[in-house]
């Protein structure tokens, strides 16, 4: 056996012995970390071993032993937490604290362990809990060394291994999977060169994946999702058992069949609802009219409450419970909606989806339960319904649900599909503002939002009080408002548009210098700058924006001012993004027409520098000044409006 192998075995035994006994650990000294692992790192994983021991399709044990050096107090690694729920038990075995030189400072006392609910919000019902310790850290940098164990007696899925977060480096990390020889566990690795090893021990199969000296990846705004750039070991059971049910993740059809089975017949309507449904749809002539009527009834009569109880959080409350309590989570409301449709002969499927801005991890060749939400699909009408919203029009889904891969839960099992999206051409914002340079100065404006650009306006209309609406408007207005005289927010029931109308008194508009007044080309609706200023990116830049904004600003010339300088028109474009501005004198008004189009894009770090150059040009054009000069010989009457 080589000298190197002897040294590796000695180091492993030394690490393991130290972790169990809590001695001074000179190998944890910060000075011993390779300098290449310190760049961009707020924490360095010195040692980790996660062991997953699968005893049967129903039971497994997870053991974690870890040592991590913390350089930033905001690092998530500074929190020692152990998740569990009603299907499991947890034990936080030990926590040790070492200083920058590896000297043992203190050991966790059992009295310091807290046991808390995962969510404190009363609107969330869950059986998820955490064991953890609070305020255990010392003077930076320091090292935490801990060990915990969880035992699960029901299995729907296995915990994936995420050995690295952004801004973390790894010295040594290992995952060990122990399974019965006859139990198949599907595995898939992403984004790293894992060292893989497989062996047998009697009736047990042992697999391991190891990472050594992995550098930190910076946390950058608008970067790729973690599952595209961080090391990941995914696992899914070929067979699992939870409650009275046995399921499979061998393929999407099988997993969908399990979800269908655990929710079967839970949509059955109580007699009172059967009568009500017949009554409310009696005058409806088409299936779409029936769907619209029942969907609006659900929106106005049921309340959304997040529930993460039951079988893996995926078994719905039955329809009788929902009708009695008048609330439900996404599963319960979707199942209830499905049951209402069934009473009038309309078939609908439950749909599981990852509701997020980012695209979910949804491989075709690996069954991975990354879903966090349920909605409804009506195949006969090619209609998708978000049952937790009380303001979306019938058949319209949220922006972050559009164009997503989903799994339909059908009687035949799971079927992969994709949600629709609103065409980019329909996602628009149109504004018109008129500014009167009187004493006092005034502004009168209106915004029209269409397509997926209505989310904020709808939220203000349905959820905010008049005072909250005014507060939001003032906080997001780019002008200096002395008094908001009128504010009116509305939305069309059809979902075609939402609007904001306002009148306000300004305390300032532009800047006066001597006899000149300087007015920015667009100080009312400045374009969004997609550049963070960091032109030394390491990861791709991703933008999902897809809209066009048109602004018309009319600036009334004051009676004693004349135009000295009017900027010329500008036009810039970059990979589907467009910006233009044009200024004209129309009667006694300066008309500023501004248009910007944002297109979805994914850019390499090199292309990102080109985007920054584009945004710089836009910003310069937008900050150009209209120059007005005071002239007593050109007094005019103030205009009334364009």
UniProtKB/TrEMBL annotation:
Q: Which Pfam families match?
A: DUF3857, Transglut_core
Show where the Transglutaminase-like domain sits: 276-385
Q: Which domain of life is it from?
A: Bacteria
Q: What InterPro entries has UniProt attached to this entry?
A: DUF3857 (IPR024618), Papain-like_cys_pep_sf (IPR038765), Transglutaminase-like (IPR002931)
Q: Residues in domain DUF3857?
A: 61-217
Which protein are we looking at? DUF3857 and transglutaminase domain-containing protein
